[in-house]
Amino acid sequence: MMINIFLSILGISVSTGLMVIVLILLAPFLNKRYASKWKYMIWIFLSLRLLLPFGGVNGQSVIDMLLQPKSRTAPVSAEQDTDVPVNAAIPSRRIIVEIPAQMAAPLTEPSGDSNMGITLLDLVSFVWITGILIFISIHFISYSHYKRRVMKRGKIVEDVNILSQMFKLKHELHISRTIWVIENHEAESPMVIGFFKPVLILPKEQYNSEELFFILKHELVHLKRGDVYLKLLFVMANAVHWFNPLIWMMQKEAVIDMELSCDEKVTQGTSYAVRKAYTETLLSVLHKGCARRAVLSTQFYGGTKIMKKRFQNILIKGRKKNGISILICAVILTICSGTLVGCSIGKEDMGNENIEIENIENEDAENESAENNNIENENTENMSDQPEPEEIPVEQTPVYTTENTAVLIFSKEGAQELKQATLTIGDGYSIYLPDDEWQKSDSDIWIAAVNEQVRLWITHFRNESIDSVDQELTDDGYVTVQDYDKEKQEGDLIYHVGLKASENDVWGIFYCYPTDAEEGWGRELPVIADTFALSIGADNTNSDSPEEF
Q: Which of 11, 377, 411, 547 has the fewest CB atoms within 10 Å around its CB?
C-alpha cells in the first residue's frame, strides 16, 4: 500500500517537475509580456496538483481502452518474435520511470513458508514519510515559536494615524474582518501573520504618511487574497515532495511571484510618480533589516536580485497582456504530462517486460483514487493537528479622538471592532456617533438604522440634583448597576441610563436595545455613551469644543 502511494507520488513529482523547468526557462518571456498574477496562479495550480493528484494512470487507462480495437493476434513463430503481428493493435505508450527490480526483493530471507519480508523499496517509502513529518514539524514549530515571541513582546498600536489609515484601506479593499495591529521592535519587516485571527505586525520604526500608506496597503492586499494560506499550500506541496529539488525551486519562485503580483495590485492604475514612490518605500523598509523570514507569513521578501526584479516590474511602462491563455495551456500540459509519465518496478524477464508493466499499471489504476484520497486526508490531519494561533491579551481602550472624528473601539465576543465616528453637537452637549449607522428622530433622540428598537437619547433635567433624579428613576423601575448608572427591563427591551451632574443641572444619557442583542448593541452602546461631553458655554450653547465630565 505505502509503496504504491510512493510510486504514484514519484510519478506526479517527475511530471510536475518537468513543468517547473519549462516555466523557469520561460520566466523572462512571461514576466515581460504578462502580469505576474498569472504565473502565480500557475504555481497555485501545480501545488494543488502535487497534493491532489488527478489524471495520471486512470486517465491513460481510459485512453488505451478507447484507442485499442478488439482484434485477434496471430501466433508468432520463434523467428518472428520481435516483429509486430499484422492484425495486432499497438497500444499507446507511456514514459515509465523504472524502479530497479532489486529494490522490490526482500532484504532478508523469509522464514518457513512465509513470503513476508522488508524490501529496499519499503525502506525508501519509510524514509519518504519520515521526511514529510520532519519537514512539516520544523516549519510549524519554527512558525509557532516565532509567532508566540512576536505576539508576547508586541504592543497594540494606538496611533490614530495608523488606525485611521487602516480603516480607510479596509473600506477601500472591502475587508470586513477584524485585524489587530501590533508593534514589535523585534519584527524585521511589516507582515501579516496568523491563519484564523490575522494580525498585522509593524516594526518599531518611524514611517511617514506615504510610507505608512504603501506598507499597510501591501499587507492588506496579501490578507485580502489569502496569501498566508497559499504559502501554507506551497509548504505542504514541498513537504510531500521534499526529495525533489525542482519542487524546492517551485516554492521559491511562487513566493517571488506572490510579491510581484501583490506589487502590481498595490500600484494598479497609478501614475509613474506613485509607483516610483512605492519602490522607495520598499527599499526603505528592506534596508532596515530582513535577516530572518517567517515562512508562514506575508513578510516582505528581499534580496538584491529579487528587489531588482520587483522594481523593474513596478516601473515597467506599458500595459501587460492578459495571461489567461497561458494559465489554460499550463493546466492542459500538466494534466497531459501526468498521463504520460508513470513509475513501475523493472522486470528481469525482458521478453514479457511490456506485458508485466502494463499489468502492474492496471493494478495501480484500480487503487489510485482511494490512495490519493488517503494522501489528502493525511495532509489535512497534519494541518489540523497544529496548534491554533494564541489570542493576544488586549487592553481595552474605548476611543481615539481627534477634533471632530474618532475611532471607537468595541470589544465583542473577545475580538476588537473599530468604527469611524463623527462628533455630533446637541443643545449644550456633544457625543460621538459611528458614521452612517444612526438616524436622528428628534432633537435629542437617535435611532439605529438597522434596528428601530435600538435608540439613544439625551435628557436634560434642569434645576435638579442628581440624587433627586436618581430617586425618580428608581421609582420608575430602574435599579442601580454602579454609582449613578441604572438599568431596567421592560418586555424584550433593556433600558440603561447614566447620570451626569453639572452645576445646577443633571444630564441623562439613555439608550435601549433588545435582550437578544447583549453581545452586540450591549457592548457598543456603553462605549458611545461614554463619549458624552458638555459643550463649553455659560448658557449651554452649541460649541465645537466639548468638555468631558
A: 377
